[in-house]
Amino acid sequence: MTAIRPRRSVLYMPGSNARALEKARTLPCDALILDLEDAVAPDVKEAAREAVCAAVRAGGYAPREVVIRVNGLDTPWGEADLAAAAGAAPDAILIPKVSHPDTLVSLGARLRRLGAPERTRVWAMIETPLAILRAEAIASAAHDVDTRLSCLVMGTNDLAKETRARFVPGRAPMLPWLATAILAARAYGLDILDGVYNALSDERSFRAECEAGRDLGFDGKTLIHPNQVAAANETFAPAPDEVEHGRAIIAAFEKPENAAKGAISLDGRMVERLHAEMARRTVALADAIAARG
Ligand SMILES: CC(C)(COP(=O)(O)OP(=O)(O)OC[C@H]1O[C@@H](n2cnc3c(N)ncnc32)[C@H](O)[C@@H]1OP(=O)(O)O)[C@@H](O)C(=O)NCCC(=O)NCCSC(=O)C[C@H](O)C(=O)O
Ligand SMILES: [Mg+2]
């Protein structure tokens, strides 16, 4: 199994907000998205680019992953953002409004030419109607190693804008799109993150949306405020009883008497080797979270 990176809580912050860039070094989130796109007004795009790249170069964010969201590559700022972000060498560069796999083709080679180290990955926002309709084709870009694609990120605000779907409790209008994107991500071995929840002070409904996202299969949730980090960390971490049960499944299949068995009975339930595989992932994720301290 490849090493698991917890991505329970992935916090956006405007690249133009110096206080947020500083505060991020102390927040208990798994990853940060330093935004140059929609959270930054046109007049301050260049200043935000400089501030974000300087902050990434200065460091101090580990163990959090650091991601720079550039402006769309077809906007007046996109190419300069990409060049500057590549030079700053974040963990990933997030491309907004990807509607076609062609946007990602050869991105790896371009990043290499721009000086980005191999470890700098590409994340893609799924936030347009065309992205949902082409989710499988976009995710399949991960098969072309030169795209460096490793994670999809739902952009539910843009999806609401483009489709006129409403945000309602339970998100019924969006569920088919969320599920489609999750299937596409999993089919090509990608991580996938749920969209943001805009009502900053509604902790109860935020937690309910985290739980629903986790149950759908998301790896974590994108966030807009530090007060959302704790609930996301809790919800997307395996529960202690899940980890304990996972360890019991692994141990049961390691017993000599079960060596030749594909299915066994454990605590009154049928357990197959696929459950042992799932359990190994759960335990590895719990261990990776514990290692963060
Ligand atoms: C929403 C906010 C504008 C609210 O800001 P503010 O009123 O300043 O909040 P607080 O006074 O409660 O802040 C308390 C302290 O926390 C710091 N803070 C606030 N937000 C962040 C943050 N995101 N990251 C880091 N630190 C943050 C404040 O500086 C205060 O610190 P201190 O001075 O020490 O007390 C604001 O939260 C905000 O800007 N949020 C992020 C907005 C954003 O990035 N939006 C773009 C992404 S959402 C999106 O569009 C996804 C996708 O594309 C889609 O289409 O769906
Ligand atoms: Mg968006």
TrEMBL record:
Keyword Disulfide bond: no
Residues reported in the UniProt entry to bind Mg(2+): E127, D158
Transmembrane parts of this sequence: none
SUPFAM superfamilies (UniProt xref): Phosphoenolpyruvate/pyruvate domain (SSF51621)
Superkingdom of the source species: Bacteria
Keyword Lyase: yes
Keywords: Lyase, Magnesium, Metal-binding
InterPro entries linked to this entry: Aldolase/citrate-lyase_domain (IPR005000), Citrate_lyase_beta/mcl1/mcl2 (IPR011206), Pyrv/PenolPyrv_kinase-like_dom (IPR015813), Pyrv_kinase-like_dom_sf (IPR040442)
Cofactor requirement: Mg(2+)
One record GO biological process: oxaloacetate metabolic process
Domain HpcH/HpaI aldolase/citrate lyase: 8-226
Residue sites binding substrate per the record: R69, E127
Molecular function terms, GO-annotated: lyase activity; magnesium ion binding
One Pfam family this sequence matches: HpcH_HpaI
Protein family: Belongs to the HpcH/HpaI aldolase family.
Name used for this protein in its record: CoA ester lyase
Organism: Salinarimonas soli
